[in-house]
Design goal:
310 residues; alpha/beta; four-stranded parallel sheet; 9 helices; 4 strands; binds zinc ion
């Protein structure tokens, strides 16, 4: 929740004996101060882009110092027991809570990422690579045109791990008047309740625990054992060799781990960590005045590389 100090009204202690003598002046004083108090206290603003009026949006951009979040999820199967929108629901839960702690404007539901590897499963929405990049570019361009000069893409889906840094890198191919940041940490590196399972890459113990916090009504723990989330080891390629079918080779059910091991305790630990780390990231991005300066310097030099001096 956002907390705003009520300014302008001084706290007063009135004793019974003095009340009658000072009541009128006090009332007059209070009436006189109420309008200015209303002006001084900043109105509570939603962090949801789509909930703001046009005028409040202007105030939101001002209050966020042009810092906006673009949480990215996906629509894909999540084992036999979790909703298709798991990544979207979780990343929005984290982003909205973080933005309430450190104000930022949060873009509406966005799930147009990379998920070619789950095209064989029902409910997967997998756009072409051209569409993914074009839509993301036009989205961040439109955000920036509306004052989001610092766009923090908050990733909620492992399949975007290559797409998003590539997108950020290619912002250097022509000038932009805004900075794209990618926040791609989904779970704490250590600590918290001990995990019961060893393999846990998709819809397993960790991710199922998160949904027990974000949308417990959508979890079906009793169904988690209906399919195997075991590693099938169907490819034997040396380390350092990548091929797109690796995931299907290991986890053909698009399920890795065992969701029945999930607990609320683990989910709370992971979600609190995610929200806290993202809150600190928003603060750090607000304080970053170098990236845009360096980008502008770079774009200028890139126009005439032969004149760039060592
Ligand atoms: Zn997921």
């Amino acid at each position: 929740m956002l907390k705003f100090a009520a300014e302008g009204i001084m706290p007063m202690t009135i004793t019974t004996s003095t009340r009658s003598t000072i009541l009128f002046p006090v009332l007059t004083l209070l009436l006189a101060t109420i309008p200015s108090a209303a002006q001084a206290a900043p109105p509570k603003l939603s962090v949801h882009w789509e909930e703001l009026t046009a005028a409040d949006f202007r105030e939101g951009i001002h209050r966020s110092q042009g810092t906006c979040l673009l949480p990215i999820g996906i629509l894909e199967k999540h084992g036999p027991h979790l909703p298709l929108g798991t990544d979207l629901l979780d990343v929005r839960y984290a982003a909205l809570h973080a933005a309430e702690q450190e104000y930022a404007v949060v873009f509406p539901e966005y799930y147009f990422g990379q998920i070619a590897e789950a095209r064989h499963e029902p409910g997967t929405v997998s756009y072409s690579r051209e569409m993914q990049l074009a839509l993301l570019q036009e989205t961040t361009d439109e955000m920036a045109r509306n004052g989001c000069k610092k766009v923090v893409i908050v990733n909620g889906h492992g399949g975007n791990d290559s797409l998003l840094p590539f997108f950020a890198q290619t912002q250097l191919d022509k000038p932009h008047d805004y900075v794209v940041y990618v926040f791609d940490k989904l779970s704490p590196p250590s600590g918290g309740p001990a995990k019961k399972t060893k393999i846990d890459m998709h819809a397993g113990e960790g991710e199922t625990s998160n949904v027990l916090i974000s949308r417990p009504d959508l979890v079906h723990p009793d169904r988690a054992g209906q399919e195997s989330g075991a590693d099938q080891h169907r490819l034997n390629l040396p380390d350092g060799v990548y091929t797109g079918i690796w995931w299907y080779a290991r986890f053909p059910n698009h399920y890795s781990g065992d969701g029945s091991a999930a607990t609320k305790e683990l989910g709370k630990f992971q979600m609190d960590w995610w929200i806290d780390t993202l809150t600190k990231t928003i603060k750090a991005v607000k304080a970053d005045h170098e990236s845009l300066k360096l980008q502008n310097e770079f774009y200028e030099k890139a126009k005439h590389p032969l004149e760039t001096q060592p």
